[in-house]
Amino acid sequence: MQLEFDPEVPVREVRLTLTVDELEIFWGSLRETLEAVDEHEFQTRVGFGSQEVRRLQAELARLMNTLPYVPE
């Protein structure tokens, strides 16, 4: 895993490089969080609304579906 940002400017965006396994772990963690945390306390416990997390999870799924299949 690698994190990149420009130290000369205020951080508004970072670039995170993940292995495919790390990406799958991250996606699964989002899925489990969405399933485990009740909607009425989601914002408080997670720091973001569930809709924002669902949007991120959907975007990650879209990106994962563009990866070429490589049999193990």
Radius of gyration: 15 Å
Total number of β-strand segments?
2
Indicate how many domains the architecture comprises.
Answer: 1
Uncertain segments of ≥5 residues (pLDDT<50)? none
For the largest sheet, list the strands in their spatial order. Answer: 1-2
Instruction: Give the topology string: H per helix, E per strand.
Output: EEHHH
Indicate the overall shape. Answer: flat
Q: What percentage of residues falls in helices of 4 or more residues?
A: 55-70%
List the helices and strands and how they pair.
Blueprint: E1 2-4, E2 15-17, H1 20-36, H2 39-46, H3 50-64
Antiparallel strand pairs: 1-2
Helix pairs in contact: 1-3
Q: Could you please describe the fold and organization of this structure?
A:
The protein has 72 residues and is mainly α. It has one domain (2-64). 56% of the residues lie in helices and 8% in strands. The chain is built from three helices and two strands; from the N terminus they run ββααα. The protein has helices at residues 20-36, 39-46, 50-64, and strands at 2-4, 15-17. Strands 1-2 form a two-stranded antiparallel ribbon. It is flat, with a radius of gyration of 15 Å. It starts with a strand and ends in an 8-residue tail after the last helix. The relative contact order is 0.13.
